[in-house]
Write a structure and sequence with these properties.
By secondary structure, the protein is an all-alpha fold. It is built from ten helices and no strands. α2 crosses α10 and α6 packs antiparallel against α7.
């Protein structure tokens, strides 16, 4: 059954309301990802600090020159730290993928259970339990792990296009003048921006399809492109509402952050307490917003591409 964009959002919100434990799961996933990511950088910082210990009293220029020395980066300590950082970073992505597999598995099961139609009572979406969540995570973790690596590759390709555009604009500006360079840069920025928006929409649709039985890391991108191609209006509506909600969240949190930075500068305990509160609010509200967006995509994808049944 074809869903309007606003109905997909309504189904997504009902799904999330019924399976509200997913907010806790997303918060845990975010905190673990941040913690493991920071931990993956610590060995490198320690190794570089030890390697530069003899240069503590040198001028900044000399220290930077030392950092640019290939011999430093090829030293056993730094190489071991880089290897350890890669391992910890991989573990961080794997852990986050496990949580995402569980989250989207529950969302897909809830959307399927509620039946076809626009708005449905939220009780019909209820299917959460921690055992099924863990099973979804176990069954789909490596699929999500591969998907995130594909997403990084797509992002790197987009950044490469941006770098090429900047180089072209600078080259034309140096040879033909500033106006010509600006024309190339601005003219190329519009289609590049449209491409980045398209990639983002397809990626979200792909993620909404990923936990289904007959999907996969590569197949989900093809299906996501089909959904966005069929329903560009609904996709853009969900994106715009998500952007507006994100801006509203920033309007709420940024003043709190500034109040701590400027108003509590001389009160360390109060400042740290406020920073902790802001961090918790960012994690919880960010989880709510991201899950609502993802659940809306699950509803739209399942409406456009009916499946034989998502796997358990």
């Amino acid at each position: 059954m074809r869903l309007a964009g606003i109905d997909a959002i309504g189904r997504g919100l009902s799904n999330l309301r019924a399976n509200r434990e997913l907010v806790l799961a997303q918060c845990l996933a975010t905190v673990l990802l941040l913690g493991l990511s920071v931990l993956s950088l610590l060995p490198l910082f320690v190794a570089l600090g030890m390697s530069l210990a003899d240069f503590a009293g040198t001028a900044p220029e000399e220290a930077l020159a030392r950092l640019a020395d290939p011999g430093l980066w090829l030293s056993p300590g730094v190489l071991a730290a880089l290897g350890g950082g890669v391992v910890l970073g991989t573990v961080a992505i794997a852990v986050y993928s496990w949580f995402q597999a569980g989250i989207f598995g529950v969302l897909i099961a809830g959307d399927r259970q509620a039946g076809a139609g626009g708005r449905r009572p939220h009780e019909l979406f209820r299917n959460f339990n921690w055992g099924d969540f863990a099973q979804w995570g176990r069954l789909r973790v490596w699929r999500f792990f591969a998907w995130y690596h594909l997403f990084v590759l797509v992002g790197m390709a987009s950044m490469l296009l941006l770098a090429l555009l900047l180089l072209a604009a600078v080259g034309v500006g140096l040879s033909q003048g500033l106006i010509a360079g600006l024309a190339v840069g601005c003219g190329g920025a519009l289609p590049l921006f449209a491409l980045l928006v398209l990639v983002g929409l397809v990626g979200e649709a792909a993620k909404g399809d990923l936990a289904r039985q007959d999907s996969g890391a590569g197949a989900s991108w093809r299906r996501g492109a089909r959904v966005v191609g069929r329903r560009p209006g609904a996709a853009l509506l969900m994106l715009l509402l998500w952007i507006c909600a994100s801006m509203g969240l920033s309007v709420f949190l940024v003043p709190l952050q500034l109040a701590g930075d400027f108003g509590l500068r001389d009160q360390p305990f109060a400042h740290i307490s406020l920073e902790a509160i802001v961090f918790v609010l960012q994690v919880v509200l960010g989880a709510l917003l991201g899950l609502a967006y993802g659940a809306s995509w699950v509803a739209l994808v399942r409406a456009e591409l009916p499946d034989s049944a998502a796997a358990r």
